[in-house]
Amino acid sequence: MGVVALMLAGAGGITGLRLYPVAKPVEAIALTGDVGAGAYLARASGCIACHTDVEGGGPPLAGGTGFETPFGTVYAANLTTDPDFGIGDWAIEDFAKAVRQGLSPDDVPYYPVFTYAFYQDFSDQQIADLWAAFQTVAPVSEPVPATDLAFPFSERDGLKLWRAAFLHAPRTTPVSGQSDIWNRGRELVEGATHCAACHTERNIAGGRKVDTGRMQGNDVLPGGSKAPAITSAALVSSGWDVDSLSYALQTGITPSGDTFGGSMGEVVQMGTRFMTQEDRIAMATYLMDQSDE
Fold first, then answer.
1. Are residues 117 and 92 in the same domain?
2. Residue 19: its pLDDT value, please?
3. pLDDT in tens, 242-282
4. What is the mean pLDDT of residues 139-168?
5. Which end of the chain is least crowded, N or C, by CB within 10 Å?
6. Same domain, yes or no, for 39 and 162?
7. Amino acid 8: pLDDT
8. Residue 171 falls inside a structural domain
9. How many structural domains is the chain composed of?
10. Of 99, 125, 100, nearest in space to 33 by CA
């Protein structure tokens, strides 16, 4: 589609894109959220891991974590209830649009380092649960560093072209004939826990190669780390099974006795170890038998 060329078309093209709407209507959400369910989903979805600057000793969900990409550095947003630097002045509908569409309350696109593509199928109840949980977070009145990207990537409206080419729907729909545990694993792996975000190859524009590189591994992760292939065949050949994989998602310990490091270590430490054993087994069941891969 010549997306890279279009993004490099210049300031005039970017200005025109500002007038192009991409937001979908957001219906009012009047459901009562469950704080516990929301906190669980936030853990599973990586909200805590990505939006807490652990290395810098920052408060929970106050943002500031830097993600180094080939295009520059993007910093995680402040998700506390502070009205100036966080999301304290948002409505639940603003939150729903951000989570499911990757758009700010003013319809400005978020950089796809934010894995909103995998949350598109979150239900209104899940949004209400998440919202209820985030309302319990203490406000932190601190800004995060400004995103540091070179032109034209510094112009967020250019992301409208990127979205048109590379924003894919999550593969969370239940598959007829599969077990409940397999379909639960699919819902988690392809949705909330967004495994494909790190374990899928990317093209020159940063889009996932969903047709040719899905779960095939990725050598260009933020910060210079790598993610191995996690297709079913790759996992089997590396000695994994459902038991060892579900155990690793709880402890970070691999079948060889080694431990996960880097990004995957953070995923376990701040995410999957808090999930139920049933959900970890469901994820492992699906990963070991991705029948539609």
1. yes
2. 60
3. 999 999 999 999 998 899 988 898 899 999 999 999 999 99
4. 90
5. N
6. yes
7. 43
8. no
9. 2
10. 125
Residues 158 and 186 grouped into a single domain: no
Nearest C-alpha neighbor of 193 from the set 26, 45, 40, 75: 45
- Residue 68, domain member (yes or no): yes
Torsion over CA: 6, 10, 15, 16 (sign): negative
Examine the domain organization and report whether 136 and 231 are in the same domain.
no
> Tell me, what's the pLDDT at 148?
86
Q: Are both 131 and 185 inside the same structural domain?
A: no
Distance from C-alpha of 215 to C-alpha of 199, rounded to nearest angstrom: 5
Percentage of the chain lying above the pLDDT 90 cut: 75
Query: Which residues are paired to 75 by β-bridges?
Result: 66
Considering only residues 54 and 137, tell me which one the structure prediction assigns the higher pLDDT: 137
Tens of pLDDT along 198-220? 999 999 989 999 988 899 999 87
- What digits encode the pLDDT tens for the residues 57-114? 889 999 999 999 888 999 999 999 999 999 999 999 999 999 999 999 999 999 999 9
